[in-house]
Design a protein that fits this description.
By secondary structure, the chain is mainly alpha-helical. The protein is built from 10 helices and 2 strands, in the order ααββαααααααα.
Length: 278
């Protein structure tokens, strides 16, 4: 994921922002502890949201503690005391990073390709561990990457079809946050809408670079002007945001509701406006 699912910090109360940072730092710690220091490179606000969502549907809370930061031993951070609710999001982050690495090796040329090949062994062991712990996530991400590559090879010009693999992958991963059948249906829908949001926003943000590099981007094949494409993407992103918000209202959230509401009802729109400069 790309860090597009983040909070609108200016609208957060201090205690909510501190908890948001606590979950972010705890996920960083879990990645380093379970999968090694390089796994911290997978850390993003998207997976922080997934972690908050995963924790929010459970009644118990492990509490927090202050410890030295592994990345900066000169400062202390607040962490969650236990990492059980962090295990699934951390595994998902690790698996998605490894598949993205393989995809980059396949797509890139020259020094970039060599660079990705060199760093691949540093992540392979961590990926195998994550795959062993969560084979279902490995299957979900593997199918997503395979479908995405097929669409890219056929130069799919439909933005809806191109966004579908990402949306389907997130819908299945989000559904893992609960054993409750009703919540799973809601999470499935939320994940799908957020997956589309992430893909559409990223596709437009990368459009000019992809044109220069000759990389695949479904928006390249449209005869519309840049501004027309932008307005079309904004309209679709607003639909994704409203449908994600509708799903959020149906969830039986036990905790972190104010933080999750901030991300969904304010953060998604705020991020869209900042990224698209509107």
């Amino acid at each position: 994921m790309f860090g597009y699912v983040r909070a609108c910090k200016s609208e957060m109360r201090i205690k909510e922002f501190e908890m948001y940072k606590t979950v972010y730092c705890s996920l960083c710690k879990e990645l380093g502890k379970t999968y090694g220091p390089f796994a911290r490179l997978t850390l993003s606000y998207d997976f922080t949201f997934l972690t908050l969502l995963n924790m929010s549907l459970k009644k118990d809370f492990c509490g927090t503690e202050r410890k030295l930061c592994k990345c900066n031993p000169l400062k202390k951070c607040t962490y969650l005391k236990e990492g059980r609710d962090l295990e699934m999001p951390a595994a998902a982050a690790m698996i998605m990073l490894y598949f993205k690495l393989l995809d980059n090796i396949s797509d890139e040329k020259g020094l970039k390709k060599i660079g990705f090949i060199i760093i691949k062994p540093f992540f392979k062991g961590a990926y195998k561990k994550a795959k062993k712990n969560y084979p279902n996530i490995d299957r979900i991400v593997g199918e997503y990457i395979s479908e995405q590559q097929s669409l890219e090879k056929e130069l799919c010009s439909s933005i809806d079809k191109a966004a579908d693999p990402t949306a389907k992958a997130l819908s299945q991963i989000f559904a893992l946050c609960s054993d409750n059948e009703k919540d799973q249906r809601v999470l499935n829908r939320m994940g799908y809408c957020l997956g589309r949001y992430i893909y559409l926003l990223d596709a437009f943000c990368d459009l000019n670079d992809d044109i220069k590099k000759g990389s695949y981007n479904p928006l390249k094949f449209s005869n519309e002007s840049y501004e027309e494409k932008k307005q079309m993407i904004i309209a679709q992103l607003n639909i994704c945001i409203s449908q994600t918000a509708a799903a959020m209202e149906l969830l039986n959230v036990e905790k972190f509701k104010n933080i999750l509401d901030n991300i969904v009802f304010l953060g998604l729109e705020d991020t869209m406006k900042k990224e698209l400069k509107i």
